[in-house]
From TrEMBL:
Gene Ontology terms: cellular component: plasma membrane
Database matches in PROSITE patterns: ABC_TRANSPORTER_1, ABC_TRANSPORTER_2
Molecular function GO terms recorded: ATP binding; ATP hydrolysis activity; transmembrane transporter activity
This protein's name: ATP-binding cassette domain-containing protein
Organism of this sequence: Nocardioides zhouii
Alphabetized UniProt keyword annotations: ATP-binding, Nucleotide-binding
InterPro entries: AAA+_ATPase, ABC_transporter-like_ATP-bd, ABC_transporter-like_CS, ABC_transpr_LolD-like, P-loop_NTPase
Domain ABC transporter: 4-218
Length: 221
């Protein structure tokens, strides 16, 4: 089990305070929803938790810890097993579905045979085995979201931060992907899903609402 904690975490862009100082604990094994209207600060919070906001782009204060160890920068967060699925998926249009999952695994030094097995397993898990050779550009928005989730699952994250990762899915695939996020939590990860969708949020262990950067518990863990 891997715990995610932040203390006094805030995000500002020039004069805008997008996330007001926040203390948060997400225990390994739990799936937390971060809800709120457009512009509430959900993406900013997830990017700050992943230590992925560049100092030139945003002012981030506070600390983020995984299993008690403070994360310095994005590379440090990646080494600690933090995986962010960004809102627009972060996939490269010119890679195929399978390459999208394989390349980060090989870059991290996962042996080729194991990496290939993980690609097969995760494409099957998200129901896209027959689309493996399609370029990302040739996939629908919902299929791209499922590839992005498969890529994250293949990395076996200790902390998984998914930003609107079910927004383009039909109800059936949304249920499947939320079940997969729950399985990642059951494996021991701390999982956070930012979502507009009340039906997705209702299926999580706890829900935190953001409004103009102010966080309020809707359902406590
Ligand atoms: N790079 C940036 N520069 C300046 N302001 C930004 C930047 N990114 C976000 N903001 C502002 O910060 C606030 C929070 O934005 P954020 O994207 O975190 O919200 P969100 O809840 O994820 O919205 P959405 O649901 O539309 O994705 C908004 O007022 C937004 O305009």
């Amino acid at each position: 089990m891997s715990d995610l904690d932040c203390a006094d975490l805030s995000v500002g862009y020039g004069g805008t305070l997008a996330v007001r100082p926040l203390d948060l604990h997400v225990a390994g094994g739990h799936l937390l929803a971060v809800t709120g209207p457009s512009g509430a600060g959900k993406s900013s919070l997830l990017w700050a938790l992943a230590r992925a906001l560049r100092p030139a782009a945003a002012t981030v204060t506070g600390t983020v810890r995984v299993d008690g160890r403070e994360l310095g920068d994005r590379e440090d967060a990646a080494r600690a097993g933090v995986v962010l699925v960004p809102q627009r998926n972060g996939l490269s249009a010119t890679l195929s579905a399978e390459e999208s999952i394989l390349v980060p695994l090989l870059a991290l030094g996962v042996p080729a045979r194991e990496a290939t097995q993980r690609v097969d397993d995760q494409l099957a898990r998200v129901g896209l085995a027959e689309f493996r050779r399609h370029l990302v550009d040739q996939l629908s928005g919902g299929q791209q979201q499922r590839v992005a989730l498969a890529r994250a699952f293949a990395l076996q994250p200790r902390v998984l931060l998914a930003d609107e990762s079910t927004s383009d899915l039909d109800a059936g695939n949304r249920e499947l992907m939320i079940a997969a996020l729950r399985e990642e939590a059951a494996r021991g990860a701390a999982v956070v899903l930012a979502t507009h969708d009340p039906e997705a949020a209702a299926q999580t262990d706890a829900a935190l609402a953001l409004d103009e950067g102010v966080a309020t518990w809707v359902r406590r863990p």
